[in-house]
Amino acid sequence: MEILVCVKQVPDTEAEIRPTADQTDINLEGIKFVVNVYDEYAVEEALRIKEQLGEGTVTIVSLGPDRAAESIRTALAMGADKAVHLNDPSFLGGDAYSTAKALSKAIAGMEYDLIMCGLRAIDDDLFQVGSILAELLGLPSVTGVLKMELSGDKKKATVHRQVEGGIEVLNVSLPAVLGATKGLNEPRYPSLPGIMKAKKKELKEVKLADVGLSENEVGKQGALTQVVKFSLPPVRQAGKVVDGETPEEKAAQLAKLLREEAKVV
Amino acid sequence: MAGIWVYAEHKDNKVKKVTFEILSEAKKLAEKRGEPLCAVLIGSSVEGMNPSLGAYGAEKVYCAEADSLDKYTTGGFTKALCGLIEQEQPSIVLFGASVNGKDLSARVAGRLGVGLATDCTGMDVDDAGKLQVRRPMFAGKVYADVVFHEKTPQMASLRPNVLPVGEPDESRTPEVVKVTPEVGPGDLGLEVAEMIATGAGKVDLTEAEIIVSGGRGMKGPENFQILEELADALGAVVGASRSAVDAGWRAQSDQVGQSGKVVTPNLYIAAGISGAIQHLAGMGTSKVIVAINKDPEAPIFKKADYGVVDDLFKVVPALTEEMKKLKAE
What we know:
Chain A is of the alpha/beta class.
């Protein structure tokens, strides 16, 4: 079974995020980058499927600048077999659509039975790339996969999808694009031998010419939305410390404040 | 004059509140642009929900009905909505940023090749009438002002519980346009086998008006009982920090934060949560924040409107009693 996993490199969740001085971009100075956590669930699931079947190939597909290669190596160190890195300046600065478009062209030339990705990237929080990718490839998509099981003939998957107040159980025909969410599995850490092996695994770079698109169809030029300004959220006013001698007094005072001052209860 | 459309999400034959929030705000946009405000209902039998949409400002309601649209499926609803959009050419289409609203809007954006901004907290039109939105990124660590390519419709999903709901006017009757989309099994791409209800009857964290969350300071899963009791007294939903979820004390779906759910309740009570940056990002836009923690240096106090520095195991049950008293008054 040929499994592709889309992976994005993102700033660590502990990173403080600030706009640049001219507010047209994010200041990336000093930021630590990691594999998007939702994509780690996708990688882990792909590896588990391959291990369970005892056959197959897991290929990482990632679009990003040079530094993204480090996150691709992390996914290879977890156990993926090879990787494709869409690495061309013209691919960068895009939105979900132009990113999915470049990915779809690169993927269209590859073999696949299943495509995994994360429900969302924790940097731009768009929740779109997997769905648009599926659309451009003409495949079904499921977002928010909590659990999945392949049928014996590997032509279908039974998928648990997280929705408000419940879990939807779906039968989806493969190939499909499945977007992993927290709860699907516990991603493994790369082992030391895994890290050594990853250095020798195939990492193919894909340039603009390789995807058969023009410069104005990808990245910033191909984007259908554009961020014109980044700003910090309004600073919250310093709060009140609730008075009282005992926990009970404090609770009573808090209840009073919530009712009379904040008017929220 | 093609109109501003709002996709009306519904559950159990009722339109979701976020739809009314969007209609209320979109009405101002429609007036500025001189365009009609329309709503779109998709399902097997949806016509009964028309009046509520009219009351919140929809002048026209498109009802796309077919038996195959009985349950939400990405493929079926995408086909139904795209068919209507291609026929009627609206200039703007808006969705609630719920699980299915995000799923559907992304797929529609892909099919039509138009721009989509996800989970927005504000929207307006500029002097030229073009849509502009504001949306949090990095779970709210920064905000981005987004503009769209000229290709229409320009699309956005709006975060629940942020935009104020206007007063409904029950006397208004919307014009109803019925359509029957041709959606067959092949368009669905998948089949919905069953729906397993979890936390039956409870509101999802992203739609909750009050949230009571616990963190590492709860010391164990059994202690969340006191938060459940407080939540019952307040009509709230219980959430958790990443450390509480990673420790296995609470379900994954309860996690609030950058790698969990981003929430915007009217009241967020954090008990035994120190306030890691990724947690603060996920709840920082709550309207009122209460922190209960015995460590006065905990970062959560910098975000809190009301801070209680004390033992949560004493404060929380006392607060529950106070709330019961207040409700009884």
